[in-house]
């Protein structure tokens, strides 16, 4: 019996958390020549998409791909991104989310526990940085 990858479930859960919290979900995708993506927005071998309800239409996140329609320079494009190309998903406002390793598919299920532990460490460090940079908003009024 083969087990399903946790990746699509984690992507959907982080997406739902972003929407419920009022954050903007962004997905980072490894730019691959086989993908039909707007090449002019690729930087350092990856492209980042805003997949909020206001930015895309017809968003579908299933177990194989992320599909949506978005506008780039005024031109509407239908994108289908295989989950293997997804590097991570995060909330723009708080820079929290989950990053996936670039292992092959066979190693994905085996390394899931390691990925979750690594992502938990990343999230804890991001939370710590967010708390550290906040300053009190109290003022003394006479």
Question: What is the share of helical residues?
Answer: 25-40%
Form type: globular
The pLDDT mean sits at: 81
Helix run count: 3
Order of helices and strands: HEEEEEEEHH
Classify the secondary structure makeup into a structural class: alpha+beta
Strand content: 25-35%
Radius of gyration: 17 Å
What does this structure look like?
- This protein has 142 residues and is α+β, with helices and mostly antiparallel strands.
- The chain has helices at 7-21, 105-110, 112-133, and strands spanning 25-30, 46-50, 57-61, 65-72, 75-82, 86-91, 96-99.
- Strand 6 (86-91) and strand 7 (96-99) form a beta hairpin.
- The termini are far apart.
Offer a quick outline of the entry.
The protein has three helices and seven strands. The chain has helices spanning 7-21, 105-110, 112-133; strands spanning 25-30, 46-50, 57-61, 65-72, 75-82, 86-91, 96-99.
């Amino acid at each position: 019996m083969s087990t399903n990858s946790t990746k699509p479930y984690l992507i959907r859960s982080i997406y739902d958390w972003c929407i419920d919290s009022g954050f903007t979900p962004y997905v980072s995708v490894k730019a691959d020549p086989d993908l039909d993506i707007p090449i002019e927005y690729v930087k350092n071998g990856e492209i980042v998409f805003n997949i909020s309800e206001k930015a895309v239409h017809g968003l579908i996140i299933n177990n194989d791909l992320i599909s949506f329609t978005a506008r780039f320079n005024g031109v509407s494009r239908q994108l289908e991104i295989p989950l293997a190309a997804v590097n991570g998903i995060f909330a723009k406002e708080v820079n929290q989310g989950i990053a996936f390793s670039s292992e092959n598919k066979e190693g994905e299920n085996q390394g899931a526990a390691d990925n979750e532990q690594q992502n938990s460490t990343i999230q804890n460090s991001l939370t710590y940085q967010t708390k550290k940079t906040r300053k009190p908003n109290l003022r003394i009024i006479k």
